[in-house]
Specification:
282 residues, mainly alpha, 2 strands
Length: 282
């Protein structure tokens, strides 16, 4: 603090009166604490600024991928019909074929690869409608479009979650159901490999159709017309690989083609889905 002192004095030379004002610093106990308080205030402000900077910093690409993947898996676990319905549909189709075709082992063994793959294809198609539809209805899809992270990374996370929910259970239960169809023992490895490489392709290609029809009410029929032609190459080469394995022939060529379809879809499909979502939501 400072103290104002006013001095009134008389100049004897010209008999004029002058007023002098002086500012005198006045020290007290509080002035000693001012530098400490100021420094503490500056430190606290800097800490708060750092916290705000950390909060405002967008997550990395891997963190964003993990967040979207975890979110979709948690939602699917809360709504168990998301993964139970395709699985039950897959089981019902395979168990109905022996009842309709007959119990002949040779007939069932010959058509088993096609039955398993058609059932897997239809079960995946059944679950595609929920890939973006619920996010579109509750507005979270718009938040994904406005996020600072690239949209194709978030889309790839959602497709991965869809495959973990639908494709992975099909791979695990397909060898058990193949016993009902009397599948040849030498074909189980080919069945597992084709499903492992082919079911992600079904999810990736199906996501393109879902993104194009996400804004359309009752777009299930249109989705089937868009997606089913894209599934035909996977179906052909997968069943051919299993048939060759049953005959003792090499099937590495068919697996190579399915792997090429997988890597091609993995590279291009997320960009196509991101572009389709922007078009559909606008």
């Amino acid at each position: 603090m400072t103290k104002l002192t006013i001095i009134n004095h008389l100049n004897t030379d010209d008999n004029r009166e002058y007023i002098t004002m002086t500012l005198t610093p006045q020290c007290n106990d509080n002035t000693e604490n001012l530098p400490t308080k100021n420094s503490n205030t500056l430190q606290s402000n800097s800490v708060q600024a750092n916290k705000l900077a950390i909060v405002n910093t967008p997550p990395s690409y891997s963190a964003a991928f993990h967040l979207v993947l975890t979110r979709d898996l948690v939602i699917a676990l809360r709504h168990k019909d998301d993964f139970l319905n395709p699985l039950l549909f897959f089981i019902i189709i395979i168990t109905l074929f022996p009842l309709g075709v007959g119990p002949d082992e040779s007939t069932l063994s010959r058509i088993a690869p096609g039955i398993i793959w058609v059932a897997a294809l239809l079960a995946t198609l059944l679950s595609l409608d929920r890939l973006f539809k619920s996010d579109h209805l509750d507005g979270s899809l718009e938040q994904l479009l406005l996020s600072p992270q690239p949209l194709f990374i978030l889309v790839l996370a959602k497709i991965t979650a869809h495959w973990l929910i639908t494709g992975l259970p099909l791979i695990m239960i397909a060898p058990l159901l193949a016993v009902l169809l009397h599948l040849d023992e030498s074909s189980y490895n080919a069945l597992f490999l084709t499903l492992l490489l082919g079911t992600p392709v079904l999810s990736l290609l199906g996501a393109i159709g879902v993104a194009l029809t996400v804004g359309i009410k009752k777009g299930g029929v249109l989705l089937s017309l868009l997606v089913l032609p894209l599934y035909i190459p996977v179906l052909i080469f997968a069943t051919s690989a299993i048939d060759n394995a049953a005959l003792g022939l090499p099937y590495s060529g068919q697996l190579a083609i399915i792997a090429a379809l997988f890597f091609g879809s993995l590279t291009l499909a997320p960009f196509a889905v991101a572009a389709a979502l922007k078009v559909s939501t606008n």
